[in-house]
Every structure is written in structure tokens, then in C-alpha cells.
Amino acid sequence: MAAMAIDEGDLRRRSPITITTVPSLTESSFSEYESQPSCPHEVSFRARPLRTDSNTTLDQIVVSTISQNRLSRQSSLPWGHKPSPLIGASCFLFILPIPLLLRACCPVSSFLLGCVTVSSYMSDHVFTGLESWAHTFDKVLAPMAFTSCLYATYSTCGLAWAAMSVAALKCHIMAKYYSKNEMYDQFVIWHSLWHAVGVGLILVAFTYNRVAGKCWEGSVWEDAIHGLIMA
User: Fold this and answer.
1) What pLDDT is attached to residue 74?
2) Strand, coil or helix: what is 218?
3) Are the beta carbons of 102 and 213 closer than 8 angstroms?
4) Non-local CB neighbours of 120 within 8 Å, separated by 6+ positions
5) How far is CA 106 from CA 20, 213, 214, in A?
6) Sign of CA dihedral 9, 15, 16, 20
7) 187-223: buried (b, 16+ CB within 10 Å) or exposed (e) per residue?
């Protein structure tokens, strides 16, 4: 028994106990483990983050609209050739105020609206999203027609009526905003409203105030045109 006890003591002294530390499985260790591929040839796929450069603010839209290159033939629409029947139809609304502007002795505004009817239809519908000279003509003629009609409204109907053009500008800015952020359906609605609201304000202002320019005084056509428009 003594010999056996000695042998066991010798064994304990000769074979020291080694303590192995096992790391605890915390949340960080799990994430580190999951981030490493299980196989050296394993390919990990990560989802590409969404584009953040397309989230253009309204302030940037206003600046880009003022400073844009109006002589460029390039389209500003990001989705390519995707014509909308609603926008195409709204381009012909510019014809409606022409008789009222002629009666108010505003031939320049009438001429520019006639030109914009053609340029907007070609730019916004026929060649939308494509490179064309139609975009150059529309970028030049549209602000000219807007300024001319704004002055005609101010000089014949007053400042209050002219100030209502802010509503049309708001529609234009919103259309640009949705275009930059690649939201097609919203762009179609607001761009069509840009045409419709601008034309509607001219029609209401000149019809309500019964504007008749002095160039028609003493003309045999005055009563005929007045009866045709105001009927």
C-alpha cells in the first residue's frame, strides 16, 4: 500500500496538470467567425449599397435649372427614351392662350407660345431621352415664352395675377426633382402640371379681366373676336 501511494505521488509529480484556456463565445467572436469564409476558395457576395448621389435636394435643382447649359443637345432625363402620352398631349395646351394674347395686343407672347408648342412636343415627347437639337430649342424658347407671358400678364392684369405664376414654377421644380431622383411616374405628373398650370393661369387671368388691347380699337374685327372668345 505504501509503495502504491509512493507510485501515485511520483506520478502526480511527474505529470503536471496543464490548464487550457477556452475563449468564451461572445457576440463579437460570433461575428468574427461568421465574417471569415469557411473555405479558402469560398467567394463571399455582399449587397451593393444603394446610390446616394441621386438624392438631389430642391436647392440643388433650382441652382442646376438656372445654370444649365441651354445649348446642349443632351437630354436631362436619366431613363432614356420613354415618351409619355400625357406629357405629349399637355404640350398642345400652349395653343389655347394665343387668341387671348393676340386680343390683348401681345404678338410676341403669342408667337413664342406657338414656337414652344412645337419645341416642347418634339423635346418632351418625340425625342425625349435622346440626343436632339429639339432640346436646345426648347431650353432656349421655354424661358423666353415664360418671361414674355409673365410680363404680358403683369402689364395687362396686374401684379397679383402675375405672382400666381409661382405655382407653375413650383410644378417645374418638382418635375426636375423627380427626374434627378429617377422617379418616372411622379415626373410625368408634375411635368404635365407644369404645362397645364401655366396655361390655365393665363386663360383665367385674361378671361376674368376681359383684356382688350388698344391695337383693336376702331377695328372691325374687335366685336367679332370679342364675341367668339367671350361667348
Assistant:
1) 85
2) coil
3) no
4) 91, 94, 138, 142, 195
5) 96, 8, 11
6) negative
7) bbbbbbbbbbbbbbbbeebbeeeebbbeebeeeeeee
| DSSP secondary structure string for all residues of 60-120 | HHHHHHHHS-TT--S---TT-S---HHHHHHGGGGGTTHHHHHHTT-HHHHHHHHHHHHHH
Q: Is 23 exposed, middle or buried (0-12, 13-18, 19+ CB in 10 A)?
A: exposed
> Tens of pLDDT along 12-62?
555 555 555 545 544 444 444 444 444 444 444 343 333 434 466 766 666
Lookup: cell for 175: 418635375
Query: What distance in Å separates the CA atoms of residue 135 and residue 122, rounded to the nearest whole number?
Result: 8
Residue 92 per-residue DSSP state: G
Write the pLDDT tens digit of every residue in 177-207. Answer: 999 899 999 999 999 999 999 999 999 999 9
Question: What are the DSSP calls for 143-159, one per residue?
Answer: HHHHHHHHHHHHHHH-H
How does pLDDT run across 75-95, given as a tens digit for each residue? 889 899 999 999 999 999 999
- Distance CA(110)–CA(218), nearest Å, equals 22
Nearest Cα to Cα of residue 212 among 131, 133, 99, 54: 99
Q: Which residues contact 106 (CB under 8 A, 6 or more apart)?
A: 148, 152, 156, 213
Whether the Cβ atoms of residue 65 and residue 194 lie closer than 8 Å to each other: no
Dihedral (Cα; 74, 171, 196, 187), 10-degree rounding: 50
The whole-angstrom distance between residue 178's C-alpha and the CA centroid of its chain comes to 3
